[in-house]
Amino acid sequence: MKNLENKVAIVTGGNSGIGYAAAAELVAKGAKVIVTGRNKEALVKAEQELNVTGIVSDQSDLKSIDSLVEEVKAKFGKIDILFLNAGIASFAPVESASEEHYDSIMNVNVKGVYFTVQKVLPILNDGGSIIFNTSINAHVGMPNSSVYASSKAAVLSLNKVFATELAPRKIRVNAVSPGPVETPLYGKLGLEKEQVEGFGAVLGEKILLKRFGQASEIAKTVGFLASDDASFITGSEIVVDGGLTVNAVV
């Protein structure tokens, strides 16, 4: 159903994985979609495959965010949907985590997200929708994920505060928290194919539905939150994890 016709959406980090799937879902629902990323080649590929507009932008660089907003304003005027998907994930135990490890994650996942919202607000229509891509890592206490988990927990806090602050403009603010999803991210973590498969087999047993999620399944939740079907939902977190976080202890 094309319930996003005449809407304009920005999907950060929309050239692969969940962002790519979300962009495809929003286009299928009738929206005009802008995808961002740091890889120009991947953005061109997304433009050709999805019929979207690609803009090179680095979420960790505030000047780059300014340039993004100016370009979107010049080409589209205003937007209606902002899906803050761009983020990085890397892992280290607390004993050996470096300042560089901490800053690289926080600069993209928290500072970049915060100031993207701030700088996009002037071109976001009243009644619009902001959606954060967070993670069940904010809740589950997975070893070696302290900085990444903290970054996602921070965004979940922003989710509630922004929902309160932006309610007078009828802007809905929500978060989607995926569980394990089959995306290129696992390759980016430096894991070998056998390691990913072994990790998936162990983790899969803890997921009630006995499998990893698909990026397209997360994308459908994003499409729902972006639309008027979610018109009475704000400040909420929707967990999409196949039942991982509600699995019984015994």
Describe what is shown at a glance.
The protein has about 250 residues and is an alpha/beta fold. It has nine helices and nine strands. A seven-stranded parallel beta sheet has the order 3-2-1-4-5-6-9, sandwiched between helices. Strands 7-8 form a two-stranded parallel sheet.
Give your account of this protein's structure.
With 250 residues, this protein is α/β, with parallel strands linked by helices. It has helices at residues 17-28, 40-50, 62-76, 99-120, 137-140, 146-166, 185-188, 193-204, 215-226; strands spanning 8-11, 32-37, 53-56, 79-84, 124-133, 172-178, 181-182, 213-214, 237-240. The strands form two sheets. It has a seven-stranded parallel β-sheet with strand order 3-2-1-4-5-6-9, with helices on both faces. A two-stranded parallel ribbon has the order 7-8. Helix 1 (17-28) packs across helix 9 and helix 4 (99-120) packs parallel to helix 6. The N and C termini lie far apart (42 Å).
Shape annotation: globular
Q: Would you tell me the structural class of the helices and strands?
A: alpha/beta
Q: Round the Cα radius of gyration to an integer and report it.
A: 17 Å
How much is the average pLDDT?
A: 93
Helix content: 40-55%
Main beta sheet strand tally, sense and closure: 7 strands, parallel
Low-confidence parts: none
Q: Work out the strand percent.
A: 15-25%
Number of strands: 9
List the main descriptive attributes of the protein structure presented here:
single chain, 250 residues, alpha/beta, seven-stranded parallel sheet, 9 helices, 9 strands
